Amino acid sequence: MSLSIPTLPLADRPALARLRAALRLNGLSGLVLAGAALLLLGVWASVGVMLHLKERDTLTDEVRQNTNLARALEEQTVRVFASADQATGRVRDVVVAGHLTPADLARFASETGLVPNILVQLSVVDAAGRFVGSNLDPDGQKNGHVDVSAREHVQVHLAPWSLTPAQRLPNADDLFIGKPVLGKVSKQWTIQLSRRIAAADGTLLGVVVASLDPAYFEAVYQRVALGTSGGVTLVGTDLGVRARVIGGQRSRMGSSLEASGAFGREASGTEGHFVGPSSLDGVDRIAAYRRVASYPLYLLVATARDEALADWRETRNVTL
Fold it and tell me: Between vectors from CA 158 to CA 136 and to CA 257, what angle results, nearest 5°?
């Protein structure tokens, strides 16, 4: 018994042809749509990569700019501290030699080239923590022998055991750079640079103090254009702010950065950079920092991330 394959009537064959043609057309349309979708996906991917690279380049340029500014400001800052530091060394040596005269303090202060706008006062404190004299009051008669033993910049040399380990100097002969304080003698806010004076046998003779005006550093930093939320900070390794300018305005002098903040976590070595929020005001910034020579200070230059990426954001919005 044989099987036979049925055939369509002649009248139905054109319909089958049309069906086959339609199927071929639909298949072609599907391929076209799939190709278009892949092309569109490729375009979006290219745009995404382009935007990512542009953002990265913008951040890189901002870090480079801030790093260069930090280096330039560090050079200017270190010249001031080095001159004041040298003066403290000269006073110490003369006191140890037993040759200090009231005129010496005025002469040493004047020879720094920092008087009167930067170096407010160069003074000596005795081993009991009492003011002896300064370039402003050579024999101490004008202000009296004020007791300044409780001030950190004096205490760190005369009674280091009364301070926390973090507040003490690594070495007894190191220069101490304190946070801004209101001077008992000068009546001005000043950054105190202090150094102990000890005899050859180790006997403590007193402390020499150079008082710098933080307003000088603020005036210098105000000349740097870093946007409405960018700025410059002179900060110690103890995270205490010695001078700070944000958006061209003096800000938060004497405050302290948090150890858990972006700078507290990232700062190390001679220089570096990071992107993160400030522990003082919460603003997300692109920051570069530079160690101020061998002093326990950093120069921090930062621009607000939102401001730095403003052009990139506009490009993104137009493109997408």
Answer: 85
pLDDT digits (tens, 9 = 90+) for 262-310: 888 888 889 999 999 998 888 999 999 999 999 999 999 999 999 988 7
Say how many C-beta atoms besides its own lie within 10 A of residue 153's C-beta.
23
Q: Minimum mean pLDDT among 12-21, 80-89, 157-166, 196-205: which range?
A: 12-21
Going from the C-alpha of 272 to that of each of 64, 151, 191, 255, the distances in angstroms are 11, 33, 25, 22
Q: Domains (ranges, CATH) in the chain? A: 56-78+216-312 (3.30.450.20), 80-212 (3.30.450.20)
From CA 223, how far away is CA 61, in angstroms rounded? 21
Which tokens hold the place of 300?
A: 């921090």
Q: Among candidates 317, 271, 308, which has minimal Cα distance to 60?
A: 308
